[in-house]
Amino acid sequence: MFFFRDHLDLDLGASRVEIAFTDASVDLQGGDDKPGFAADLGRVVDEAGVPFARLSQVHGADVVEVVETPPRGPAEVPSADGLVTVRPGIGLMVRAADCVPVLLADSATGLIGAAHAGRAGTALGVVPRTVERLRALGARDLHAWIGPHVCGRCYEVPAAMREEVAALVPQTFSETRAGTPALDLGAGVHAQLTQDGVTVATVPACTLEETSLHSYRRDGAAAGRMAGLVWRR
Ligand SMILES: [Zn+2]
């Protein structure tokens, strides 16, 4: 179920933040009305031991603060691409299949956050906006995990699109193995985080190349979605 797991010990004593990215054995694409969604979400909730707040992701830069424990079953889902919470026992989920899932945790306070950064979100700065929101809530020692996403050697785009995004986030400028224009969204997000003073870990996996992961570019409209998950015990 989990392609990658990690944790962050907090300065608060016994408490810690858990980090996980799921693999293609669960599909979290869609919502409560999709067959199989509730079962797959239930497996994730059972494994983690907390309910997860999730988003209707719209490739924007809005960030919501979660203040109420999400229901285990069907839920009202806000439209946004970043979420944060100060409360222990609430899990945060972002979903991706090639886009960049980013998980955040503050070792000083236990604040957590998550963001979904595709091409548009990277250019719009959804990750810096999420960091800013956590800092406004008191975060002082932020750590980030960049989850599996399509790599800068696989994500081919038209030259004009590369120019447009690289004008805003220069580190995204890339080339495919064939020498054609590409974007490296992971490098862009990594630069945004380090410029903001966040300690960054990157999960070294390309969704398009790794068949145990969902990939929109590989599987098209039928592609499932992985989850990036962060929660505090
Ligand atoms: Zn790749």
What does this structure look like?
By secondary structure, the chain is an alpha+beta fold. The protein has one domain: CNF1/YfiH-like putative cysteine hydrolases, CATH 3.60.140. Helices cover 23% and strands 28% of the residues. The protein has six helices and 13 strands. The chain has helices at residues 37-48, 119-124, 126-136, 159-168, 185-195, 216-219, and strands at residues 2-9, 16-22, 52-53, 63-65, 82-85, 91-96, 100-106, 112-117, 142-146, 173-175, 181-183, 199-202, 226-232. The strands form three sheets. Strands 4-5-8-7-9-12 form a six-stranded mixed sheet. A five-stranded mixed sheet has the order 1-2-13-6-3. The radius of gyration is 17 Å and the shape is globular. The model has no long low-confidence stretch (mean pLDDT 96).
The whole-angstrom Rg is 17 Å
The CATH superfamily is identified as CNF1/YfiH-like putative cysteine hydrolases
Structural class: alpha+beta
The name of the CATH architecture is: 4-Layer Sandwich
Percent of sequence in beta strands: 25-35%
What fold name goes in the CATH topology slot?
CNF1/YfiH-like putative cysteine hydrolases
Order of H and E elements: EEHEEEEEEHHEHEEHEHE
Strand order of the largest sheet: 4-5-8-7-9-12
Beta strand count: 13
Kindly report how far apart the N and C termini lie. Answer: 20 Å
* Number of distinct helices: 6
Mean pLDDT: 96
Give the class-level CATH name.
Alpha Beta
Low-confidence stretches: none
Distinct small-molecule ligands in the complex: zinc ion
What is the percent of helical residues?
Answer: 10-25%
Characterize the biggest β-sheet.
6 strands, mixed
Instruction: Please tell me the total number of domains.
Output: 1
What spatial form do the alpha-carbon principal axes imply? Answer: globular
